[in-house]
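LAB NOTEBOOK - FOLDING QUEUE
OPERATOR: T.R.
BATCH SIZE: 2
PURPOSE: Compare the predicted structure-token outputs for two unrelated chains run back to back under identical settings.
PRIORITY: normal
REVIEWER: second-year student, initials M.K.

ITEM 1
FIELD SEQUENCE / FIELD STRUCTURE:
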Amino acid sequence: IASTTWFCLTDDALIMEGNIEGIGRISQRLSNHSGFSYIGLHPLQGDALVTVQADRSRPGTFISVHSVTNSISPNGDVGLYAMPVTIDVAFIGEEEIEVTAGRFLSWRFALRWHEDWPPADVWVQPHTHVLLKMTWSMIDNWYELTELQDTSNYS
């Protein structure tokens, strides 16, 4: 394992403990007095969950979400410790899309992590916010859901 980190959000603080390759042992405590409303850790589903904060009654209008992420880089590979960031999120609309996992009704959002970066387009499953697809002109890649299993019968 190259790096490992642990994050804990309390009413007062965000606490991070880690051992990060190239940095070593690190401990952080960030005041939560202004209220972080989202912690965006770097699996793609983590990026999709910030869409919960968007105002779907105002399509195309960005809102700012006071957040903490573990990397502010296009590929999520720099830092890996707690970094405060404001993420701008806008609901774009409802669309039907097709990905490898099938055809889905989706909610489309735009996410902007940095004012001088173009927004990423993210399509999520309505209400659950499961990531269906993500494209971003900042990087030469796109991501899409390849399989979705119904687990409602599992106990």
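ITEM 2
FIELD SEQUENCE / FIELD STRUCTURE:
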Amino acid sequence: LAVDLGIDANKIAAVPSGADPIAEAMARYRPEFPNNLLRFEKHQRNSETSFTLRNGTFDEHEALTVIDDHTSGGRNKRLFQIAAEGYGLNVTHMLNIVDREQGAEAVMADHGIVMRSLFTITELFEYGLAERHITQDTYDNAMSYKQNNAIPTDR
């Protein structure tokens, strides 16, 4: 996916922990593996989220592509970007499997990050509806939820 999008980041990392296997699989496609894979750890304390580098080496200002399984409003993506840049990395791109279309793409663009996704939640629900895996009512409820829980994008 990264190559198809013209992304040539030296390092790959996942937003922990759901996307760890995805990032590792992508990193394996590069001849630098395992040296191109950075691993972070997510910490939750009360309502605060933080990320720390668990292992991996890199040069200061080295480009990092961040991988995640899904994105919604972009809060964790932004916190991850701040943490990675605090270590001296240059976060340029974020790749997701599913964009829940709740504002993350605009949030990250406001901070200089190009975010791409394989699917949008709308595409997945449209497919489910077309193939009769879900009902129209389920589709309508999901689209209503998406709309009602999106971060306003009027910048």
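REVIEWER COMMENT (ITEM 2): Residues 32 and 100 are 32 Å apart (CA to CA).
FOLLOW-UP: none requested
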